[in-house]
Amino acid sequence: MRRLVLATEDALSEAIxxxxxxxxxxxxxxxxxxxxxxxxxxxSRIRNFCEIARRAPVLLLTDLDTEECPATLIDDxxxxxxxxxxxxxxxxxRQVESWLLADRDGMAHLLRISxxxxxxxxxxxxxxxxxxxxxxxxxxxxxxxxxxxxxxxxAAQGLGYNSVLSNFVRTSWDxxxxxxxxxxxxxxxxxxxxxxxxx
Amino acid sequence: xxxxxxxxKNWRNFREADVPMRERTYLVGANAxxxxxxxxxxxxxxxxxxxxxxxxxxxxxxxxGITKLRCLHARRDPEVRIEVHLSDxxxxxxxxxxxxxxxxxxxxxxxxxxxxxxxxxxxxxxxxDRPGPEDKEDPRQLTQTHLEQIQxxxxxxxxxxxxxxxxxxxxxxxxxxxxxxxxxxRLENDPFxxxxxxxxxxxxxxxxxxxxKRIEKALSLAVPRFKHLKFxxxxxxxxxxxxxxxxHHRPNAGWQREEQFSDGTLRLIGLLWTLLDGDSLLLLEEPxxxxxxxxxxxxxxxIQHVQRSAKRRRQIVISSHSEAMMSNQxxxxxxxxxxxxxxxxxxxxxxxxxxxxxxxxxxSVAEVILPKTRPQAAEQLGLW
Lengths: 199, 384
Fold this sequence. Notes:
The complex is a heterodimer. Chain A contains 11 helices and 4 strands; from the N terminus they run βαβααβαβααααααα. Chain A has helices at residues 11-23, 39-44, 46-52, 70-78, 96-101, 104-111, 128-136, 141-147, 161-171, 175-179, 183-197; strands at residues 2-8, 28-35, 58-63, 87-92. Chain A has a 4-stranded parallel beta sheet with strand order 2-1-3-4, sandwiched between helices. In chain A, β1 (2-8), α1 (11-23) and β2 form a beta-alpha-beta unit. In chain A, α1 (11-23) packs parallel to α9. The longest helix of chain A is centred in the C-terminal third of the chain and has 15 residues, at 183-197. Chain A starts with a strand and ends with a helix. The model of chain A has no long low-confidence stretch (mean pLDDT 91). Chain B is an alpha/beta fold. Chain B is 32% helix and 25% strand. In chain B, α1 (35-49) packs antiparallel against α2 (56-62), α1 (35-49) packs across α5 and α9 (205-222) crosses α10. In chain B, 40% of the residues are buried. Chains A and B meet through α8 and α9 of A and α12 and α14 of B.
């Protein structure tokens, strides 16, 4: 078993990271899960992650959000220091939700909607989370209320947003199918597989 | 039915309050801001409405008399007043019912509490207005509310039943575990869960098994190595017990009884059972206590699921300090009440426009509201 450190900004990203590592089918095992709410923690700890990466592989997963491109985000965070080889710094374009939408069949099944409603190029969405929430408004009541919340609510999402999507990631999301739609996911999977096969 | 609005005057540390309430209402505020006093309004109305051994005199007496109940910040006005609006949905424009109860000290003798005002509206129609002519003829009638009397509450029995069924839970694990050694003193309505096992025992075996099955499922997710939960009656004493089986390195480690459960496990069982038990207004005092934050984070959604699966949606009022619970971005800000202590008693308010729009922008109540409930000088405590 090779221990791997997984650093993410929320419960959903953590579930995704875990699933991607499991899917390598290698001896990589997530043993440390580092997470505080939001990316600020990840950014402030980047030097520590570099340090840890000298001893064990680290998968750092964050959202691109409104940054221009992953390279500028990484430069900004690392203050142009070299990122060690064992630190996989992967940026979802623009949110991890695009990686979920990228499995169009899986998402259509989760929301009980037709697959033609699920966007084709999720990495091009300016706000993938919002797109997902818009789609979820078409879902049957139970799923809709969990994801979107009740009508009139001041909340931006439903109470079950993280738990429903994390469960989707664990049980029915197909990352290889999703990788065909999302370039940022495909690259993350490739880098992880390289790490898994390297000794 | 749900409480859609609550108005208070001179109730404990609230000189004046007027707030909307929703199917899930969260109370947040610093220590001693009055969260429990807020919940006590509904326990008080339950005590008044209780068909056996209730009534205004007893409810006030149990709280140490009217001088303890009346707000210290009340000026000349001696009256304590509660107004509750009830409806089928929090979004109804006109409440189905309005109940108003005002009372004050008699002003002589034993200073008994007497009704100064009791009104009931059914939609827009006033169906009770006291003091009335009978009260003037026989002032002693004012020592009782019409709410508490079966002969007089017939026209608004639904309201009396609603208040009478209010459930409050603040399960104290130690009282359950060490009940025998502490002694059997129990408060009415068992707010601290000493009789929790008897309550489970009273339930029909079919319902009990179904509920325990559901609770077992939750525990197997929340408690490491936990496997099974069952109800058992002691063969010699006949006393009810809960027993749990854990995955163990010794295969025949056997069933453990509730006194061996962890505090958190007992609190969680109490919380889940109460959520499943009944459809009346439920008051939860700090459900986060003793629980791991990963579990606490899930409480709002668990409550929502229970509400959704029930035949009749019950209203749940939750007091909490928990960062973990309030960090769920799905919490509807319209159901959040903020208690702010001031020099003139505590003010209860809903979210203002900026706070609501911060939630709409994706922030959580924990981020936007909880910092405002932090005592300003708390960091100085470390220097104590």
